[in-house]
Specification:
This protein is of the alpha+beta class. The strands form three sheets. Strands 2-1-5-4-3 form a five-stranded antiparallel beta sheet, sandwiched between helices. A hairpin with a 3-residue loop joins strand 11 and strand 12. Helix 1 runs antiparallel to helix 5, helix 6 packs antiparallel against helix 7 and helix 7 crosses helix 10. The two termini are about 70 Å apart.
């Protein structure tokens, strides 16, 4: 099985690092133990070698007396079982050993050669004999009072027992290290599985969501970062499902909004065609309906274009010093006849004068038209829509209130979301408030909505008043924002 993903990274990073550290520790421990045992053996040999000065003080005037004393020293040597003691004569030949066997003169003696070169007459060597046995040898060369070489004593210890102890010690450490790795792998495998399994489930569920299954959910396995990710994915799926439903409702609503005027236009066009040009009354009435419905279609299309510009960040404004009363007057005038025909009261409290503002007159009028249209739409016959304007805290506030059906509390948090419609029975695309809110943000203003179900709704449109230093042309940095080629506002 090919190891990949998080498991592979863990093997390469964490476990790989642990293995490297273990290898370094084992090697370091092996050298430390080897040094400890070898140094102990060498210290023991040096202890014997250090007593030679007193033992041979009167016996090294010539080679004969040295050999006689050395032979006696070897015969009385107490630790023959621990090490081998050899006597080397003035010619460099091994003449006697503590083993009692004839000396093997073919064995290497690097320590003896070192002792002859050393001013103190001391030499040591660790290596293998011709038989393959690992040994440590120490040689002490003897000189008489005239400085003439008379012979040497050589101590040699087998290192096989020490090497076995070193091997066992390293093996024990290595075994402990392997046990540590085993437990680390077992515990980490469970931990990695607790991550990899949910991540795979998250990936599979995310694919289902990407394919349009917004009802897919992930079971939350742990109350940690993985659990938080599961909650986030589930929340995202819910939001996408809501957005998908809103989009479908929007398409259905817009389709209905477009079909209704088109049906009216087509019906009156066919009626006019059948009646002929002689029926002047029918022609006038039909042309009036066609013009009205065409304007309605134009408004829907313009609203969709505004929404598209808003989504793409291409909604731009032609900023200028404007009288907000004039734009509000025009918007109110547009709806007086409609209010009368629907038996609704449109009350406008117009002040004598207000401070000017910096804004796009067409876009602000579009906001007023949208809010007034909504207020009339949701106000029953004999109901009232009141419009007032006041200046407060360097802001002009336009308040459009109605005593219509109001907005349920559960819809208030979404009322300015795109595609959202609190009342699906009323006409409209569900993007008017989203566009109006974006326009007010571009003016550094606000669009606040307060509503109570079965009581009414009040919309407050706030826009900052124009200060002297903000007058167009007052400074080099204050330049009007050019409109986009598509920037024609809807009437």
């Amino acid at each position: 099985m090919v190891v990949k993903g998080i498991t592979k990274r863990w093997l390469l990073n964490s476990l790989g690092l642990i293995l490297v550290i273990l290898v370094v520790l084992v090697i370091s421990f092996a050298f430390a133990v080897r040094g400890y045992f070898y140094n102990s053996i060498q210290s023991t040999i040096n202890g014997y070698e250090g007593s030679l000065t007193g033992s041979f003080a009167a016996s090294k005037e010539n080679a004969v007396t040295f050999l006689r004393a050395a032979r006696a020293y070897v015969e009385d040597f107490q630790d023959k079982e621990l090490m081998e003691l050899s006597v080397i004569d003035a010619t460099g030949e091994t003449v006697i050993t503590s083993t009692g066997f004839p000396p093997d003169r073919n064995q290497p003696k690097p320590d003896y050669e070192s002792a002859l070169k050393d001013p103190e007459g001391y030499g040591s060597w660790i290596g293998k004999l011709s038989s393959g046995e690992q040994v440590m040898a120490v040689t002490r060369a003897m000189y008489n009072s005239q400085g003439e070489y008379v012979g040497a004593l050589r101590y040699m210890v087998s290192l096989e027992a020490a090497d076995r102890k070193i091997f066992l010690s390293v093996a024990m450490v290595l075994l402990v290290g392997l046990l540590v790795i085993f437990f680390v792998v077992m515990s980490s495998s469970y931990f990695i599985k607790s991550i990899v399994t949910p991540v795979r489930e998250i990936g599979a569920t995310a694919k289902r969501i990407a394919q349009g299954d917004f009802n897919a959910r992930i079971d939350k396995p742990y109350d940690d970062e993985i659990g938080e990710l599961c909650d986030t994915i589930n929340y995202m799926a819910g939001e996408l499902g809501t957005a998908e439903k809103m989009k479908n409702d929007f398409i259905s609503s817009v389709s209905h909004e477009l079909r209704t005027p088109l049906t009216a236009i087509k019906g009156w066009a066919e009626t006019m065609q059948m009646g002929g040009a002689s029926d002047t009354r029918t022609m006038e009435k039909g042309m009036g309906v066609i013009i009205h419905e065409t304007e309605r279609l134009s408004g829907i299309v313009e609203e969709l274009l505004d929404f598209s510009r808003m989504q793409n960040g291409r909604m731009v404004l032609m900023m200028d010093r404007i009288d907000l009363l004039a734009e509000l007057d025009e918007a109110v005038y547009m709806y007086r006849e409609r209010a009368i025909s629907e038996h609704k009261h449109l009350v406008y409290e117009e002040p004598e004068t207000v401070s000017p503002v910096l804004g796009d007159r067409n876009r602000l009028r579009q906001v007023f038209v949208n809010i007034i249209d909504n207020a009339l739409k949701y106000t029953p016959a004999e109901g009232m829509v009141s419009i007032s304007i006041r200046e407060e805290n360097d802001y002009l506030k336009v308040i459009i209130a109605d005593n219509g059906c109001g907005i349920p509390a559960e819809h208030m948090s979404h009322i300015k979301d795109k595609f959202y419609k609190a009342n699906q029975t009323q006409r409209g695309s569900g993007i008017g408030l989203a566009v109006a809110d974006e326009i007010m943000k571009l003016h550094n203003g606000r669009l606040d909505i307060q509503s109570e179900e079965n009581v009414g709704t009040a919309v407050t449109i706030s826009i900052p008043v124009l200060k002297q230093q903000e007058e167009p042309g007052a400074g080099p940095e204050e330049e009007p924002v050019s409109p986009s080629p598509e920037g024609t506002p809807r009437a």
